[in-house]
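Quick check before the chapter quiz. The format below is the same one you will see on the exam, so make sure you can read both the input and the output lines.
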Amino acid sequence: MISILLPVYNALPYLERCLDSILAQSNVNWELLAIDDFSTDDSHSMLEEYAAKDKRIAVFSNTEKGIIPALRLAFMNSKGDYITRMDADDVMAKDKLRLMQQALVASGSGHLVTSFVEYFSDASVGNGYRAYADWLNQLTARHANFEDIYKECVIPSPSWMVHRADLVECGAFDTDRYPEDYDLCFRFYEKGLKVVGIPEILHFWRDHPTRSSRTSPDYADNRFLDLKVDYFCRLDRRENQNLVLWGAGKKGKAIARQLADRNILFRWICNQPSKWGHRISGVILESQDVLDTMTDLQVILAVASPNDQMDIKKQLQEFGINKSDAFFFC
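Here is the expected output.
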């Protein structure tokens, strides 16, 4: 059986379509654990109406405000061998559960399954959101999501499914760290789960003005640099290699502060001559030409412009720096 974990907060305008998309699944062997997270609209009543009509739906009231406690409560009450989650304003494609479970069974334990995603909206969808979905889908097509994990959350939540035992091994929803989807993504990566990407749009993200990623303070700073730096230092920093930070904009300066606070030694370079020689966070900014004098490097890239990133990738090749030693943080 598949357990679907569904936190719900004031989702009444979108909830019916979400629930109907679950009821319409071609795979009927599922249970839905819906957690009302202190809604002040009629979301709870709608959930109860659906539960009264379908015994596969169980409704609970959250005991502690927040999406993480809601997911924790849902998982605690779940019984399925396969776990996925859903957002109350999103829509599932009809074959989502069937295709994901089929791929997960075929792959066995130690894998997670994800799919292509697409944004939709009652208004227009911004270019940034479209670009993010396109980027994710390109990674998913190659089963290569973790290659760019330090750029953004590379497992599109809630379009994933894992074996229950693997989710438990990854710590499930035990941590209280936001953004919860990105943190879980890093823990999937940490435990070495392999990605199986389904090259088909199985999940539809709804964009609207009141979605959590727009309104919740937990997602206000969408750089998530503290999360990225923390996991980089834990999972990918190799003490026997020299560390270089490339980029001296706002993100670069924030990363530099975090590295300095951790007493991690690094060289700091940028492409702007006007900044060379300046000392910030105790480190002197230098020209990128110093890479030609260094060996055995790890490089954190904090340059956001796509065109600049393309140029930097070429320069890294010229300096003989392996792709696996370059970590794009934006």
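If your answer matched, good. DSSP finds eleven helices and 14 strands in the chain.
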